[in-house]
Amino acid sequence: MNLHEYQARQLLSRNAVALPPGDVCDTPEGARTIAEELLAQGARRLAVKAQIHAGGRGKGTFRDGFQGGVKLCVAAADVYDKAKAMLGNVLVTRQTGPEGRLVRKLMVAAAPQIRKELYLAVLLDRGCSRPVIMASTEGGMDIEEVAARTPEKIVREPVDPALGFMPYQARKVAVALALKGEFIGQGAKLLMGVFKTWWECDASLLEINPLCLVDAGDGKEALMAVDTKLSLDDNALYRHPDLQAMRDLGEEAPLETEAAKHNLNYIKLDGNIACLVNGAGLAMATMDIIEHFGGRPANFLDVGGGATQDQVAAAFRIIVQDANVKGILVNIFGGIMDCNVIAAGIVAAVKETGLRLPLVVRLEGNNAHTGRQTLAASDLTLVTGSSMADAARKVVQAVGPK
Amino acid sequence: MSILVTPQTRVLVQGITGGFGARHTQLSLAYGTQIVAGVTPGKGGQLFENEVPVFDTVAQAVKETGATASAIFVPPAFAADAILEGVEAGLDLVVCITEGIPVNDMVKVKRALEGKGTRLIGPNCPGIVTPGQGKDSHGGCRIGIAPGYIHKPGHIGVVSRSGTLTYEAVWQLTCRGVGQSTCVGIGGDPVNGTSHLDVVRMFDADPDTHGIIMIGEIGGAAEEEAAEWIGKHCRKPVAGFIAGASAPPGRRMGHAGAIVSGGKGTAAAKIQALKAAGIAVAPTPSEMAETLLKRM
Tens digit of pLDDT for each residue in A388-402? Predict the structure, then answer.
């Protein structure tokens, strides 16, 4: 589950991570009020930031041609105008796909002059099964590019889960970020707060990019987390009701949300051959084999190991809602689950949804023979596949080339 | 022979009285596996299916029955604790089937396992099967949720992160009359107890394993790590398959660990690493057995 920037800021501020002052709003009037307060507090420049679950906002374009999901302003009236242009508008960035995201909320925050941009993240290092702090002096840009071009500019500090993140490690990272003097202590404190937030929230990724040395007035500088991205471990949400309450269903694909209600794991893709499979690995492999034979999968769908007739019916209802779908491939290896239950579920679902699309079914495993008989005895016009390859070839043939 | 377990291995089940645990314990008993004890706190003294004694703690079960391996079927919130209880009781092998354990729980478990004699398989895995000599491989050791009857005793080792893809590979072998030494599902989570490499090394050292099918998927670098070792050291033919070539980056494909993030863990990079190590890569998941048999 992803959080919005403004939500991540709330969580970071609980652990005393320094942030530019600001607040969230959902109307242009609200944006103006926040702007007036920040200006009264001495802010000289403000940022208006669209709150969507996707990166690349600054370089994004709104559906109506308005440029940029992050805008700098100096006057409250200007903040009002920018907010009016963004709210209720659809923002398309390199991460949203062409459909973009509807902007429902904005953050208005002080935008101090930036002296230096740094990069900081906490994530799981799968290689050593430990959390790792990743930091770089090359902030404000895509870290993947930094990793590709100048990997030596990224420092990694793994954390022993038995000890936690130790202050000496935080100081080490601060020094590696080329911080000097009082900023080593300030930076270490900020790093400790960032790691604490990551650990307490059971986050999968907490990224601060950029972490900035900013002009704090009177010739002084301060270290601040200027932009933040936070993703959480779905498996741990059960123990964080406060974080669950932050879920923004408006940012999630409606079909995926509906599938989750039926304990189905569905991910919409952009092809035209829908698939319904048991098991995540087999579901991925089914998508792959469709591509191998020249087709394009419309979705990932894992009905799980103990799928019921109702789940199969729900799965069919979900996949046919995707208007791009021109054919369906059902691939079941029923180890323990009864293939005849799946077959009965398919027959019921096809009748219920009045399906007219080509349907290819491959059933293998427990009671597969009876399952195939059930399919054959129904008056459905479906095709059976004798193996994964046979079934994939047939569905690609039925749908036509991509 | 086989790796990790033999038909004689004495197995206990943590969470034996829960619906999921009970169902699969019945199936393992029917398969002929030596299920010698169950553990459910508060239900000590009961008998499961009128034959398997239930204990309150793993330590009691080990002491009374001599169990050396455990299957864990407890819900995700309690699974890390259950693993550590098995480790403290001195089990040789703990197989955690549970899906949905918080990653940070597993980070702590993995740290606690350092220096301990217990091997953890999983979590979020189908478990282990060493096929038996009876009809439909009856009499084997089945720890977990894999269908027993699809196996056949023989000499191919299968290791995979995915359950259904393991069954697919096993069934392809069995249908061609080729049996398996042991089949190991290591699980689809980003932090697990045993890696592809760990299992491949065991297969390489097992005189009864003559060839290996290694099934991987997007995310992490465990397949690359195993491939590098295979290229340098493995004395047995290996076929591989990597799932997820068609998966979009940044999306978690069912398994918590199956995600391409930051351009890392792509199927293309893994396939390249496998090929560079001389592993025969199956072009489709339908040809896993065939690819290995051609190589042997």
Answer: 999 999 999 999 865
- Closest Cα in chain A to B162: A281
Q: Is A366 on the interface with B (CB under 8 A)?
A: yes
Nearest to B77 among A202, A238, A365 (CB): A238
Confidence of residue A180 (pLDDT cuts 50, 70, 90): very high
Q: Which residues of A touch B168 (CB under 8 A)?
A: 282, 285, 333, 388
Chain A with chain B: Cβ pairs closer than 8 A: 175
**Within the 46-65 window of chain A, which residues sit less than 8 Å (CB to CB) from chain B?**
none
Chain A interface disruption, residue of B103, B172, B217, B291, most A CBs within 10 A: B103
Per CB-CB distance under 8 Å, the chain A contacts of B171 are 333, 364-365
Looking at the structure, tell me whether residues A211 and A298 fall in a common domain: no
Q: What pLDDT is stored for residue A336 in this prediction?
A: 81
**Can you give the CATH number for the domain in which A105 is found?**
3.30.1490.20
From A225, A244, A263, give the residue that closes a domain: A244
Beta bridge partners of A117: A212
Domains in chain B, CATH or no CATH each: 11-121 (3.40.50.720), 150-295 (3.40.50.261)
Task: Give the residue among A349, A399, A358 at the shortest CA–CA distance from A378.
Answer: A349
Nearest to A278 by CA among A365, A396, A157: A365
Are B263 and A144 an interchain contact pair (Cβ–Cβ within 8 Å)? yes
Nearest to B165 among A127, A282, A291 (CB): A282
Instruction: Please tell me the predicted confidence (pLDDT) of residue A402.
Output: 59
- Tell me what pLDDT residue A221 has: 93
> In this prediction, what percent of chain A has a pLDDT beyond 70?
100
Judged by CB atoms closer than 8 Å, whether chains meet at A281 and B190 is answered as no
**Same domain, residue pair A87 and A222:** no
* A152 and A78 share one domain: no
Asked, for residue A57, whether it belongs to a domain, the answer is: yes
Q: Domain span at residue A334? A: 253-399
Is the confidence at residue B49, as pLDDT, over 70? yes
Q: At what angle do helices A309-319 and A339-353 cross, to 10 degrees?
A: 40
Helix (H, G, I), strand (E, B) or coil at B138: coil
Residues of A annotated as catalytic are: 119, 207
Minimum-distance CB partner of A333 among B107, B164, B220:
B164
Tell me how far apart the alpha carbons of residues B128 and B158 are, in angstroms, rounded to a whole number. Answer: 10
Q: What is the ipTM of this complex?
A: 0.94
Same domain, A262 and A394: yes
Identify which of B34, B24, B33 has the alpha carbon closest to the alpha carbon of residue B66: B34
What is each CA distance from B98 to A27, A350, B37, B101, in whole angstroms? Answer: 45, 33, 19, 7
Does the residue A15 lie in any domain? no
Q: Is A21 exposed, middle or buried (0-12, 13-18, 19+ CB in 10 A)?
A: middle
Residue A8 lies in a domain: no
Domain boundary at A110, A143, A158, which? A110
pLDDT value of residue B77: 97
Q: What pTM was computed for the model?
A: 0.95
Report, as an integer, the average pLDDT of A322-335.
92
Say if A10 falls within a structural domain: no
